[in-house]
Design a protein that fits this description.
Blueprint: E1 10-14, E2 21-25, E3 32-34, E4 41-43, H1 61-128
Antiparallel strand pairs: 1-2, 3-4
Amino acid sequence: MSITDITDNDIVFECPHCTKSLAIDARGAGFTIECPDCKGRVKVPKKSGDTVVVPEETGSPQEMAQALYDSNERIKHLTGTLNEVYDRRKYLEKARTDNLDRFDLIRKEIGLIQSAIDRLCDVLAQIEK
């Protein structure tokens, strides 16, 4: 998120572990997040001047229990999706590292080829003289 992406509805705060400046939508107040830099756990503060509004409980106990069950199922699904994303990221980071190693090897081989071409050009230039 760049400075131009921050809106009036965002909370801007610092990571207490590494002092990185963080911004999150005000709906994230009270959640614990992971700092993208140091990976430390950070509790998102309330937006200054805001009051927390707790929604009223509506519906029967069965409806509330169903809503809670649905929420828990959604959390399980999102946790599974998040784990898949972490696994994919780990795979892609390894592939990136492997490709960097391959590109370095190719660069070295091209350097050897260029050196050989330069030597051939020198030999041909001496023959012409």
